[in-house]
């Protein structure tokens, strides 16, 4: 049997320098299948990258936006009266309609230029509360320790033993578990923040920000499902025709 006769059936690598033949049609079908799969992936990625899917919004809240109806019509100060040692404060919000019922994906709490008024290792306790009064409330509290112990969850504690020698912003970023609790509180009703300073913590304002993503509309989700089903049907039909 000659070399030309062997080339049609020898397996790969059986003989030095001999390359087995592959049907051209099969190779072309594989290439077209890869192209179709790539187009499908690009279509899905383009859909997910559309502004209605990934565009995020940031909502910013200040204490002065939330007056307490039980007090005279004087808006609360954004610095919460420099977080007085003899007071504890609650900042109550309504439900998730504050951010238009979008999906909450992040949150931060910022204290602008905060510092202890003297050089002592005093502590600021901050909690996420599940049922405070709506608005800002100032509570008489002349004791040591955490006024909100056992209420909601403790987000963090902060201290500034250097006092006025170190003045700057402090930003707390909510963890994944914090966000899960915040979503649950917001879905069930009133929620808010609690602040208990063990000393005077001067500051230039407290800011609460939430980052949201829009919920896909049912029509948009249905359109994606129909498009993907159509592409899959076309691929199946082409395979049967081949």
- CATH class category of the largest domain: Mainly Beta
Which second-level CATH architecture of the largest domain applies? Sandwich
Strand content: 25-35%
Q: Could you tell me the radius of gyration in angstroms?
A: 31 Å
Helix share of residues? 25-40%
Distance between the termini: 35 Å
| Domain module tally | 2
CATH topology of the largest domain: Jelly Rolls
Note down, in words, how this protein is organized.
The chain starts with a helix and ends with a helix. It is built from five helices and ten strands. By secondary structure, it is an alpha+beta fold. It has two domains: 75 residues; 158 residues, Jelly Rolls (Sandwich), CATH 2.60.120.
Provide key terms for this protein.
single chain, 242 residues, alpha+beta, Jelly Rolls, 2 domains, 5-stranded antiparallel sheet, 5 helices, 10 strands, 29% helix, 29% strand, disordered N terminus
